[in-house]
User: Fold this.
Amino acid sequence: MNSESPRSIGVSFVGNVGEKIPLMNRRHQMFDYFTRMFGNSSAGPEETSKDGYVEFGNIGEATSGRTLGLFAGVFAPVCLSMFSALLFLRVGFVVGNAGLIETLIQFAIAYTIIVFTVMSVCAISTNGAVEGGGAYFMISRTLGPELGGSIGTLFFLANIVSSALCLTGCVEGLIDNFGESGYLMPKDSYILNDGHWWRFTYTSSLNFLNLIICLIGATLFAKTTVIIFAIVVICLLSSFISFFLKSPLQIEVPAANTFVNQTNATVLLNYTGFNLTTFSENLGPKFGNDYTSNNISVTFSTVFGVLFCGVTGILAGANMSGNLKNPSYSIPRGTLGGVLFTFISYISLSILVAATCSRDLLQENYVFLMPINIWPPFTSIGILTATFSASLSCLIGSSRVLEALAKDCIYGRLLQFVNYGVWCSNPIAAVLFSWLLVQIILLIGSLNVIAQLNSILFLLAYVALNLTCLGLDLTSAPNFRPSFKYFSAWTCSFGLIGSVIMMFVINPFYASTSFGLCLLLILLLHFFSPCEASEWGSISQALIFHQVRKYLLLLDPRKNHIKFWRPQMLLMVANPRSSCPTITFINDLKKSGLFVLGHVKVDEAETNLDYTDKTISSWLTLVDHVKVKAFVELTVANSVREGLHHLIRLSGIGAMKPNTVVMGFYDNKVPLDYFTRLDSVYKTSLFQGITTNDEKFPLRLPNEEKHLSTSEFVSMICDIFQMHKNICICRHFDLYNKSDIVKNIKYKYIDVWPVNFFGPSMNDAYDTSSLFMLQLSCIIKMIAVYKKHTLRVHLLNTIDIQSQRAQLKQLLSTLRIKATIHEVQEWSQIDLRTLDSDKNTYISRVNKLIRNQCAETAICFVYLPMPKELRGSDLQNVSYLNSLTDLTNNLPPTVLVHGVSAVTSTTL
Assistant:
């Protein structure tokens, strides 16, 4: 990608293209850069580039391709674009139908929207370097690729339509000058034939001329902008002077108005000069018909659509941002100056027209300014230069927006031809494609019809610009520090709301269609665009942060209620390569709660202060790969146990802190690598390095010593209990295959064993751990994969089995848990007295009993008893872990559960 691509703005943090900063000795060169920037801003860029240098540009200096200043680059193009076809061709149409008072109101509405939008543009453009693409660049770098790309596409189309609009106006002026009954032609003679296809031929010819100029280069047009602007201003002044010097006269209806010229009789219309009666008659609205659009009736929305298309040129300067010496300086001053100048011109012309021209003249002759001019060619030249230059400006602007879209890879390979078709910094392919689309729009033919579509598309761009600035202001982003200060959230909101309202006032169908198309593009770009928001930064992240912070503060842990309890899981992951099934299962078990993947690196903390920064990227990639909704917390500690304490205390924020800690089981199984197994759904090369040392998450070798001892593992269980967190220990999840559970019909049950096998009691089924087990089993049953499975609660055969069954059934009914109760008759064959005398035999029999019930079980929840001594000796800890191992041997995927707090509620 070349250095002028908007994409490259994410690589550097200072400067524009052109300046040289060595990659080596960066500290010294940065100091030198800032010294030159603040101490000697006139220092130009070096003439040659050397290996090892990155090119930037001096602030305020003209780099390659950046030659335009404030007047020629912004003020003149904005004025010409805003004058376009309205100034000489449609001011009479607006005043003649809406009346002077309503015209002034419409101008006030239009310019209010425009001024507020300009404030947003100025704020954004003075907050950083604006590259090629103008408004699209501003929107996309703030709203992200989806919204920015969709709005940019519609803004590209807006410029296409605007170019076609101006060409149509230009041909209308030509016909009225050189066509039948043309004002510059002798009686009964003409040069240009009239008709729909003749006009299409003329507009196509002018469009082809635009193409030739654009292919030569935009600089040619930029060099003549000031001259063209001077010509238009002289023509406008001649019209103003003519109102004072021209005597009353009668003006023929133009030949184009075939609806009035239906007879051979000549129809004359009155120019009265300054006349109080004429002025009074033109104050109120009197809507007629539009003779250029099959004589359709004119309404307020029709008039406003035509009027607004004449004030949509405010982004003409921003579109040329890639050619401006100093965009941040030129865009605000040039745009605001252009808006003020055109506003004064339009208001003055409207008042003069209302005071001197009859209503019939204004409605039946849109080119009346020519015959009343002291020298009619002045008006003709003004029409042709204003419209043609505006059409050319829009064609150049649209090609630059398309080029920016292509460079950003918004549409992937679809616009790749634009990047290949660049010659001497001129986007030839983009110009040709834009020219072709203008050619298609020219088929519409009617200026007033094109004007409504043009206004809608530009208003949508203004909606996006105001939304962009509003979002930046509301999020209070520290880096949003525009030098332009005359804006606020209120100005952005008024501009945003006003633009939306006027879109629907002008044409509800066009407005709805444009919003629908924008939404469709957003969805398509979201799912298919290869462009990443992380390259630019998206305001959505700032808005999310702003809202999340606000709601986290509102989420007061003192106000928590048990009926809104949900599991907030901290899963301790030794190595994600061997933990993928467990990660997937716990993601299902969290039930829209918090899910944190925790990992402890056992090492000296002082020598690994940057561990999180170096490895967090790989863990986030893992989260995306496994497709879970989880956060990642990493820490470095002298032991796994110490690291566990860190993670329990520091994971989460506010009321969003883990209430349940999940660990894998401590055994001697060789860890499996789910990233390389051929039969694994998690198979990937994402974490594979070029060499073994580069590989992410390397697995422990079979003969390699563990970082965790048996005693430490049991101590961790006790620590979690003492820190008042629920405990889950997962075993045999190397057998867990979610897709197999869906396909294999042998899996029918989710089993719950609500009994403390290390010390059975009649009340085990109703204590905190059993209720927590029931809650977790109920949650997993809500997942689509497990909905066909039966939740089975095992009831051990006791002395009063019927009473126990009724009591358990009542509990399940109260908790609204749909489950079957399964009586385990074999329990009566186990002698509980052997629990103390021959514990190993007792545990083996219990394990066999459970295995006999689990042939068709997908997931098994088993009661996790606590060690008798929470701070027992190493021998006691080993004995406890061996008992758990024997208890769960050869079972299906099993979750050992111990609850420390109430999680179920029977209240409404």
